[in-house]
Amino acid sequence: xxxxxxxxxxxxxxxxxxxxxxxxxDGIDLKIEKGKSFGLVGESGCGKxxxxxxxxxxxxxxxxxxxxxxxxxxxxxxxEMRALRKEMGMVFEDPHLALxxxxxxxxxxxxxxxxxxxxxxxxxxxxxxVELLQSMGLQTEHMIRFPHELSxxxxxxxxxxxxxxxxxQLIFLDEPTSALDVSVQTKILKLLEKARQERDxxxxxxxxxxxxxxxxxxxxxxxxLGKIVEIGPKELLLDDPHHPYTRGLFSAVPEPDPDHSITExxxxxxxxxxxxxxxxxxxxxxxxxxxDRCRVEEPEFRELADGRRVACHLY
Length: 315
Ligand code: SF4
What we know:
Layout: E1 4-17, E2 20-33, E3 37-41, H1 48-55, E4 63-68, E5 71-72, H2 78-85, E6 88-91, H3 95-98, H4 105-115, H5 124-135, H6 152-165, E7 170-174, H7 182-199, E8 202-207, H8 210-216, E9 219-224, E10 227-233, H9 234-239, H10 244-251, H11 292-296, E11 301-303, E12 309-311
Parallel strand pairs: 3-8, 3-9, 6-7, 7-8
Antiparallel strand pairs: 1-2, 1-4, 4-5, 9-10, 10-12, 11-12
This protein binds iron/sulfur cluster.
The site of iron/sulfur cluster has 13 residues, from loops.
């Protein structure tokens, strides 16, 4: 087992609203090992993006603890986080919005190098930017372009190059390819994996797309209504998902291997509101196995003999 790079314990983020408290993230326990690629999957609105923003401390947690590389960072000030942010990069969903339209590619990529004092001696900054562009399959000439002169795939490569510039240990990727064509997605994922291998990076992907997580993750987590319901090595979850929600989610996706099928569960009903979620197991209104216990008692997030963790009274 490798060493833990990022850990959260009982992490919560609740927002006030006119209808009550929105429990966007509601008691997450998670450990990410160094050098691994973690993929968190869940439907839109389940709290994935909020979780990332709380872990990066772009949002203050309501409760719980965050540790990075063995250090508790929960109470870090903005200034303390600024130094640490160099270690944690972020690639956003929409490359069209993520880049400042008034800056050239050179300015976009060199900016974090300057902010964090990582620019090599004068003149070499250009070399650094060119190296980063080349690592993402782009050419020197792209340096003088503005974002509107680039395709969606090129913009996302610039977004990744910017994240790589400060040589972080961990990169968060929020639906990094969902705005792109399938052929472009594949190229970007290959470049990301190459960068991960070469730079010994740790990735934290979030997506609603199981097929993306299937390709990129070593470890997979499934999130539902502010909580993680199942987590474990990707092969375990894909071959034999345990939690009824995981089974329902995976059943809805065409299986690439026709010889392999899981016991299907049809997800019915709407996802309940994160304002006053159902008592007990929050999946109980949609679960075909729900019984009286499920309606009053929240299941523990339990580790099973095969190494996965599941939050369900059936296990
Ligand atoms: Fe279904 Fe009960 Fe398990 Fe929740 S705890 S997933 S309601 S069986």
